[in-house]
Amino acid sequence: MGVRQFSFAAQSVSSAAFPLLAPAGTAGAPSFSFAAHSNSGIYDGGTGALVFSIVGTPEVTIQTDLVQFQSDNASISMGAAADVRLWRDAAAVLALKNGATVQTLRVYSSTTSSKYASLTHTGSVAVLSDTTSGVRIGATSGNVGFYGTAPVALQTGVAATATAVRAVLINLGLCT
């Protein structure tokens, strides 16, 4: 079996042996770049790291156990409509936001479970809910409430009897 080669269609024919090995490169002169943007491309960031640079600045580093977006204003868009976006809002703060679209964050108990806690904010009401118990915690205009399937109006003048406490526990889904 001979040496694998490729050739360029040009005035003269060149060939090279495989594997093709490029120099390590730098952010300003990446090993793999483009004629129109020679300072944007991919270079070797050291042992086990590939770095993508854009206009001479390292922006994304990929390692075996890490993908790092190096910009403090980085975001990740997901979905064909890019309707889900994760942002670095501040130091150690991850945000889920996208314009005027209501966003919901779900935290599952395991990768195979259908049970999760969700956090939703509509712009005026924030709701934390749990699929297991059905309990919801809602907040709007400075009011906070605990409820089952739907918010319950503030009860005033109600005596704290055993029947009233049981009714509250039923509404919260904590008993039947």
Entry summary:
The protein has one helix spanning 162-171, and strands spanning 5-7, 15-17, 32-34, 37-44, 50-54, 57-63, 66-69, 75-78, 84-90, 93-96, 103-108, 116-121, 125-130, 136-140, 143-147. It is mainly β and 176 residues long.
Describe this structure in words.
With 176 residues, this protein is mostly beta strands. The protein has two domains: 5-71, no CATH class; 115-171, no CATH class. Helices cover 6% and strands 43% of the residues. It is built from one helix and 15 strands. It has one helix at 162-171, and strands at 5-7, 15-17, 32-34, 37-44, 50-54, 57-63, 66-69, 75-78, 84-90, 93-96, 103-108, 116-121, 125-130, 136-140, 143-147. The chain has a five-stranded antiparallel sheet, with no helix packed on it. A hairpin with a 2-residue loop joins strand 6 (57-63) and strand 7 (66-69). The chain is elongated. The N and C termini lie far apart (76 Å). The model has no long low-confidence stretch (mean pLDDT 80).
What topology does this entry show?
Blueprint: E1 5-7, E2 15-17, E3 32-34, E4 37-44, E5 50-54, E6 57-63, E7 66-69, E8 75-78, E9 84-90, E10 93-96, E11 103-108, E12 116-121, E13 125-130, E14 136-140, E15 143-147, H1 162-171
